[in-house]
Amino acid sequence: MEPISERVVVDRAMTTKPPLPAELDTLRNDGVRPAFQESPIGVPVQVAQGIYWIRLPLEGMVDHVNVYALEDDDGWVLVDTGTNSDACRSAISDAFQYAPFSDRPITKVIVTHYHHDHIGLAGWLVDQGASLFATQVCWLCARMLQLDSRERPCKEEIRFVERAGMNGVELAAFLRRPPSNYANAVSTIPYAYHRIEQDQTLRIGDRTWMVHIGHGHAEHHATLWSDDGIAISGDQFLAGTASNISVHPSEPHVDLVKKWLESCERFMKLADSETLCLPGHNLPYRGIPARCAQLISSQQSVLLRLLDLLDKPKTAIECLNTLYRRTLAPKERETLIAEAVGFLNHLQVQGLIQSELLGDKVTLWRKPPVTRTPLGKK
Ligand SMILES: [Zn+2]
Hints:
- The protein is α+β, with helices and mostly antiparallel strands.
- 33% of the residues lie in helices and 22% in strands.
- Helix 9 (256-270) packs antiparallel against helix 10 (288-309), helix 10 packs across helix 11 and helix 11 (316-324) crosses helix 12.
- The longest helix has 22 residues, at 288-309.
- The site of zinc ion has 5 residues, from loops.
């Protein structure tokens, strides 16, 4: 008879370290090189034949967004638009006073994704004669979100931050503050648009661009890849900062990190190290495969850091300082709760942590306890 002794069945959470394949490790060290120096706000910079980079001003934690003017046969195609602000409108108007823009109109606007800093002036430009191109999800999200006009947070938003562990003075301030309504940051999203989809090609001037769709940062995020080695990446893969991967109170349990990592792996294979990346923020750069490898590796480090913290139960808010390796200011905390929940959702979907709702108010996350099972038994 088999002796009955006790063995420790070690939970996956204690041993599983997301592996970093050797190929990723090599790529990561290949280097990401800025292709241009920082340019003044509103001044077009030629980054390739027939392509101009224009930085537009933003208020808030990110102080600018990049848009790109592509020369077409009958005018200009603008990729992304900035937010619906006087500052962005002036910057676009001023930029298009410069040669070679001044003699031809903006005929098309392509938006990479529905975030207000990328689609905010699409309606304004369409009113002046341009046509809008976007993925269907982008257009639907923008049309839907512009209906929101609330003076106070709704019950789902309150439940979201309470479950993340917000309480006391911080919660009271959150309840008093008007939400940042999407409609305030976008001009009216046009009723009609042209749909762009995965693998669609767009002929613009002398180039053919292929559409590739990414996920995680914004659902159905369009990226454009030219036949001569240029990629317009929106916020899908940036240099200098990682894309925000936030879960929203409207869909609090979704695993966006998985979708984003899958997209990174796909885009890494589309580019070579010389592909010129024109991103939605920060500097244009070369080295997309290396950058995607860095981003995957960095996300894995964040997940491991979080996993190490969760030997004991924590709320999402209690994870923030460990996640970001510093003490966050109150406004940052409120913004980054959504990203912390995203990481926690991902670990839970992987089976590495579990959650427990305390008193229908607060969610606690932790590794599952170690299970002891007698040998010979299942
Ligand atoms: Zn974005």
